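hey team, just a heads up i'm posting the complex here instead of the shared drive bc the drive is being weird again. everything in one block, sequence lines first with there labels, then the predicted structure for the whole assembly after. its two chains so it's a bit long, scroll down
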Amino acid sequence: MSKATLQRRPLVKKILGGADDDLLVIAGLGSSNWDITEAGDRPLNMPLWGAMGAPVSMGLGLALAQPAKRVLVITGDADLMMSLGSLATVATQQPENLAIVVLDNEKFGETGNQASHTSPRNNGPTDSGAGADLAMIAKGCGIADVGTVRDASEVPELVKAARTTKGPVFRLVKVIVEKLEFVMPPQDGAHLKDRFRQALLGRP
Amino acid sequence: MNAETSADWRDEIFEVLQTHDIKQVYHVPDAGHSRLIEHCQRSNSIRVVPLTTEEEGIALAAGAWLGGQRSALLMQSSGVGNTINMMGLTKTLRFPFLTLITMRGEWGEFNSWQFPMGQGTPKVLEAMGVLVYSVDKASEVKATVDAAARAAFNGGQSVAVLLRQKLIGIKDFGKKTSK
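-- predicted structure starts here --
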């Protein structure tokens, strides 16, 4: 299997490029949160600081409530691994406006880069996982439009899948392990929720 | 009151959910909720989402609220333990949350495996800052669920209604052969 080449920050910036009021974004805790914030903090971003395992379900609830808006969930491999069943729940509802992009660095990145379950097997004493394939899992859960992105040439299709392709869409993106600056949005959850609702609904 | 002519409490819960404009209902199925789930599934105004684990329901409820919709989570007491960390989301985001919980492991329970979480359920909910309402009389179900929905959606609280085993009835699998 080829090594990952993509860097998460420029990639997320491309995915979110030209985001307007029709794009609602939920990011998982840790790196994905800092990634979308570096691309530009906005009221219609819901960056999570905790609640590991929540983003896909939260995205589904939002997508069902707002069928005319595009809902994009951006999260990491370990976050999704905690809530694999949520993929099957998404598939029961088949939301046409929901896209899920998983940035897979094969690590628990926030806690010292321990190998996650998506790391290869037999990869040395500190870097071995299960070789778990989240795209295959998503497919097996009943999400038909699934893909894995490893190379810069595939990024334009990824952006399209995230932003406009009829959902539910799932893309696994293999990204390199990097030490990056923390770029933090507001932390107060009630504030994040209120500003999101104010921007979307005109009331907190 | 004549049981034949009075409204069934499960039908009354459905009415209350409609009155309060609940648009999404999540559940891990339970026998005690089955009639209510079927009502919701037949309704044109409620989206029913089956879950793989109860904690999904908390995150779904948060997403629905972000999008301007009210929701309710139906689960059994054994599922409450699965939600503990995620239940913190209701406090962190401060969004209205309503859950209706059918109790096991108390009144006349036959299955010893149901007792630990059944007995722990009220304490766990209270520990996570969820208001706990409890009802064991059919005649009080409608008013209790209505009050809980008001506290949640008007008062901005996280509220659980415990539908006690005394209300639901003792689960009985009939004659069984033990081996």
